[in-house]
């Protein structure tokens, strides 16, 4: 037996494994694209969408019709009105427009601040050698397992001692603190996928850390940044726990979710207006997701340098 025999066996084994993987992938693709799988997926999508369709129809039905019959009767006795939306946006009973602005004021900084800090931290963990880097990164990663509920009371006490209670800062800082571990972990992994030769070539050309970060890495990180930005935007926009804890007592800083929760508790009989309010709160997340979904898909499936 020669020394080339094990190498040949290894090559054959690897080619056989690759062939089995391709065959399995082909079978999976054929199964998922079959008529039966497509029919099941379509059926699930229809059942999943029915509650949303019912809520949408309810938001456009007159109050008298809603109190008299269910939304499905609209198909046999259609009636349409926009008074619910007019009352929700401009009426004295609900007046969600101010809370809508508060949600925007809360969400935008709560997305930009953690992403900015996470990018800087991720670059340091990925491309700067310093003592204790691995231990510190593991510590940051481990913070993801800490439930945010255990930090609410200590944070609230700290904000009160700093004189920040009842301001937007409490919500911005809280969302930044809770988002940073996951943001650093995800962006660090994307940065580590960038070929080291690319960074080394920039250093040979005389580029420093600032130029490498902004000129070399940032264009490659757009899909990853967009992916996390969508996650963070949807989380902050739909958040109730953090907003209720730190901004629930101040109406001038309370977001839409807090107002809708209050209305559902005190005016449950006017839930036809709540359905209109729910759709008002859904408009911005849907627009953001549709605008960034191509970056979202690239960030999830391709990675920063493969897209």
Automatic annotation (TrEMBL):
<keyword id="KW-0812">Transmembrane</keyword>
<keyword id="KW-1133">Transmembrane helix</keyword>
<dbReference type="InterPro" id="IPR000515">
    <property type="entry name" value="MetI-like"/>
</dbReference>
<feature type="transmembrane region" description="Helical">
    <location>
        <begin position="36"/>
        <end position="57"/>
    </location>
</feature>
<dbReference type="Pfam" id="PF00528">
    <property type="entry name" value="BPD_transp_1"/>
</dbReference>
<feature type="transmembrane region" description="Helical">
    <location>
        <begin position="270"/>
        <end position="292"/>
    </location>
</feature>
<comment type="similarity">
    <text>Belongs to the binding-protein-dependent transport system permease family.</text>
</comment>
<feature type="transmembrane region" description="Helical">
    <location>
        <begin position="99"/>
        <end position="128"/>
    </location>
</feature>
<feature type="transmembrane region" description="Helical">
    <location>
        <begin position="167"/>
        <end position="191"/>
    </location>
</feature>
<feature type="domain" description="ABC transmembrane type-1">
    <location>
        <begin position="100"/>
        <end position="292"/>
    </location>
</feature>
<feature type="transmembrane region" description="Helical">
    <location>
        <begin position="212"/>
        <end position="234"/>
    </location>
</feature>
<dbReference type="GO" id="GO:0005886">
    <property type="term" value="C:plasma membrane"/>
</dbReference>
<protein>
    <submittedName>
        <fullName>Carbohydrate ABC transporter permease</fullName>
    </submittedName>
</protein>
<keyword id="KW-0472">Membrane</keyword>
<feature type="transmembrane region" description="Helical">
    <location>
        <begin position="135"/>
        <end position="155"/>
    </location>
</feature>
<keyword id="KW-0813">Transport</keyword>
<dbReference type="GO" id="GO:0055085">
    <property type="term" value="P:transmembrane transport"/>
</dbReference>
<dbReference type="InterPro" id="IPR035906">
    <property type="entry name" value="MetI-like_sf"/>
</dbReference>
<keyword id="KW-1003">Cell membrane</keyword>
């Amino acid at each position: 037996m020669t020394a080339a025999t094990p190498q040949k066996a290894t090559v054959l084994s690897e080619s056989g494994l690759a062939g089995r993987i391709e065959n399995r992938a082909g079978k999976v693709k054929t199964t998922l694209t079959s008529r039966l799988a497509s029919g099941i997926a379509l059926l699930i999508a229809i059942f999943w969408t029915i509650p949303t369709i019912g809520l949408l129809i309810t938001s456009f039905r007159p109050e008298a019709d809603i109190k008299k019959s269910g939304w499905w009767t609209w198909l046999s006795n259609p009636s349409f009105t926009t008074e619910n939306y007019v009352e929700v946006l401009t009426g004295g009973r609900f007046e969600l427009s101010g809370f809508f602005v508060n949600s925007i004021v809360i969400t935008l900084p709560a997305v930009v601040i953690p992403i900015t800090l996470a990018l800087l931290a991720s670059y340091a963990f990925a491309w700067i050698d310093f003592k204790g880097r691995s231990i510190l990164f593991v510590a940051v990663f481990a913070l993801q397992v800490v439930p945010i509920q255990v930090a609410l009371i200590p944070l609230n006490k700290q904000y009160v001692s700093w004189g920040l209670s009842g301001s937007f800062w409490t919500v911005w800082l809280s969302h930044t603190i809770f988002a940073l571990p996951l943001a650093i972990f995800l962006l660090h992994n994307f940065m580590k996928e960038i070929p080291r030769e690319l960074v080394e070539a920039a250093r040979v050309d005389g580029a420093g850390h600032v130029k490498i970060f902004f000129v070399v890495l940032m264009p490659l990180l757009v899909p990853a940044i967009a992916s996390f930005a969508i996650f963070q935007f949807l989380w902050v926009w739909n958040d109730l726990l953090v907003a209720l804890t730190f901004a629930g007592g101040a109406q001038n800083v309370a977001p839409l979710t807090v107002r809708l929760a209050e209305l559902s508790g005190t005016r449950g009989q006017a839930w036809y207006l709540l359905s209109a309010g729910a759709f008002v709160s859904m408009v911005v997340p849907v627009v953001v997701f549709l605008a960034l979904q191509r970056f979202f898909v690239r960030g999830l499936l391709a990675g920063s340098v493969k897209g």
